[in-house]
Each structure stands twice: as C-alpha cells, then as structure tokens.
Amino acid sequence: MRTLLEIARTGVAAALLHPARSLVTVAAVLAVLLPYLVGLGISTGVRNAANAAVSHGADLYVSGEQLGRPVPIPRTVATEIASIPGVERVVPRIVGRIELGKERVSAVVVGVPVEQFPAGVECIEGRLYASGPRNELVVGTDLARKLNLKVGSYLPPFYHSRQGERVSEVVGIFRSDVSPWQARLIVTSFETAAHIFDQPGLATDLLVYCRPGYEGEVRQAILRTTADRQPRLRVVAREDAAALIPEGLRQREGVFTLLFTVAFAVAILVVLVTSGFGLAERRREVGILKATGWQTDELLLRSLVESLLLAVMAWAAAVVLAVVWLKAFNGYWIAGVFLAGVDREPGFRVPFRLTPVPVLLAGLVAVVVVAAGSLYSTWRSATAPPREAMR
Amino acid sequence: MNRGPAILLALTAALVAGAGVALAVAGDDPTADEQVSEFHRLVGGLGGGPAIDLSRCEAAFDPRLCRHCAHETGPVPAGGSFCPHAHAHSP
Asked: Most Cβ neighbours (<10 Å): which of A16, A133, A187, A263?
C-alpha cells in the first residue's frame, strides 16, 4: 500500500514536471467540457420549464382542424362543452402571431379572459390587464427590451380592424424567470385579442378543466357530441401533451450530444499529442524510469494518477465556469442552440439546472478523455525497449 | 522538501470545493416555482417547444397548438425534409 501511495505521489509530481503540457491538457478538456456542461444545464432547465407548461396547463385542449391544418373554432362551442358532466370550466383562448415595430419583431398575442384571476399577481411587474375591450397589454421581457416598452408605455395602433384601431397601454411586464415562452408574448383580454385580429366570436382553442378522474370521459364526450361539426374538433389531453412536448427538445439535445461526442474524440487526440506522441521528453522520462527499475504497471499507475488529477482540475474548473456562464452571463450565445429565436444575449432568464448525475458523468468523461490520451502513449513508451524510448 | 505536489493537491481540492459551492448556489428558487405556476394558470399552459415565438411554425412554439410542422413536406426521395427548428413530428 505504501509503495502504491509513493507511486501515486510521483504521479502528482509528474503533473508539475511539464507545467505547459499540464496546462494545455486542462485547457483542452475545459474547452470541451465547459460548453457541454452549460448545454446540459440549459437542456435540463428548458425540459423542466416545458414540463411546467404541461403540468400547470389545462386538462384538455380543444381546437379545430380542416384539411389537416389548425383553424379557429366558434366561441359558442365552449358553452356546449361546459354542459358535459365532469367539466369544471371552459376557457376560450386566442393565440396568434403579429409583427411589431420597424424591425417587424415577431410577437405572440394571447387573449384569455381574466375574470377568475386575482388582480395582484406575482408573475408580472405592474398589474394584470382588465377584462373588456380596453387595450391593456402584459408583454414579455424580450419584446419589452426590443421595443423599449415599460409599464405605462403606450403603443400606437399596430393592427387593422373593421371596428377601428385603438392605442394600447402596457400595464405589465412578465418577470423574466417565469418561462422562456413569455419572452415574446402579449397577453391581453379575450375581447382585445379578438379586436386585434378582427375575428370576433372565434377562439384558437378551448381550455377544458375537468373534475379529477373525468378527463377520459369528457374527451370521449366532446368527440362524440361534436362528431358531425365543421370544423372537426381535435382534443389534446395533458398526457398527450406530456408525450408530445419533449420530442422537439430531445431532438435538439440529440444533435448537441452528437456534436460533443465528436468534440470529445478530438480532445482525446489532443491529449494524445500533448502527452506522449508529440512530447519526446515524456517518452525519454518513461524510458529512464524503466531503465532504473520501474515496472510497466507502476508507470501506468503513475500516469493514471497524473491523468486523474488533471481531469479533476479541468472538471471542477468547468463546473465553476459553467455556473458563472449560466448565472452571471445568462447562457450568453449558447441558449440559442436549444431555443430558436433567442438572441445571442437572451431577453429572459434562461432556465437551467445542473443535476448531480450529468455533472458527475461529465467528470467521468473528463477522466476518460485524459486517461485515454495519456495511458496509451505511456503504455507504448513503457513497453518499448528503454534505449529506444530514451532516444 | 518540494512543496509543489502539496500545493497542486490543495489547489485541486479548492477547485472541487468551489464546484460544490457553485452547484449549491445554482439550486432552485421556490418563489420562482410559484410564479411559474401562476403564469401558466393565466395563459392556460403555453410553450414547451424549441422556439420562443410563432414565426417558424406553431408546433415549434407549442405542439398543442398544431399537430404538424408548417415546413413538413412529407416523405421525399432519400429521406425527409427536416424542419430547421427540429421539433416534434418533423420527419
């Protein structure tokens, strides 16, 4: 045991023998591990945010479909659905796209009745819009930043309606950390949204809230009672949404992981070059140790300890810098990899979560990268005749 | 006696401790959870796709709004047409 510890100590000393090589190795691993950890943190955070969008949403989403495309449905359908046993309430919602400003910033207008919501809400700076036809808007953080909007700002008419256009007032701005999907929202009353799109009496979808355990029956009842209605209704249950939503995010995560698999392979080659094949001194060092009586397994243990030390240093530095990148720099540049439409400097609080398992896995990857790069070259030098290794 | 290895080990231990502290600091904020819940109750649950607006397609913003991607062309010879926003139902 004492001998092993002594060999391990020489492994620590070996990291100091070639400081430039150790620094290059740590930097190479850090360069790959840091964006990987940041990406893992953001992808987990976005997935959690997506799960929250499902779990805090409605039980059923009823929308219309014609020729395989989504179409609005009459608001009166809400009354029919509300009369189905097991339905607690039905909320009509408008979701549509508009463009604002000279730069035609894309925004998502959401119109929902606000009757059942208390006036003092925490997720908004300012206040909630009032119900009715007055154009009071709550806007997302990215939109507010791009259009330089503040609570109390007025927007000149940005739409055309047969009933005439009105000036809109920004009464609230969403807090930046409530959801990434609030960034480009304009949330207002149902009547105001219908006025903006000039589509009175229509809703994009109906949010159906059911009594616990009635979701399946209500879904069947909606499809049965509206079977001969045009447009045809489509019902998405919470479970369907929970299965649908992660697919798109997983695809992006998959591409990201694939890119980093290649990056890790390149990092192994870099460490190979800095550890042995490109560094004649290290080969000579192994040859001298072999000539003075060191065994191959002792040399491998020494190299393993050195690799472990460098990998742990790179991993720990990567974790610290990843948290700084995510918390202080708000996922600058990399957030756009996971969410389309996000600027280099995100206009909202980028969700992230660094869980222990991926963080430890990244540590294991660091050890594998450094060890694979170092051990092979050490083994090649150690198994060669000392005279050749020292040449 | 050479103190280099001891200093290197101490530096590594400090880095690991720093990583632990950074991870602890980066934990969840329970106040934010309540605000998240409130936001989704207000808008009826919105978002979840890999885009933050509707400029690409509705499915990329929220797959509940639209079953299919607006860029979906169906099967094409030698593969499928990939939606640049990489969301559900793209071939």
From this structure: A187
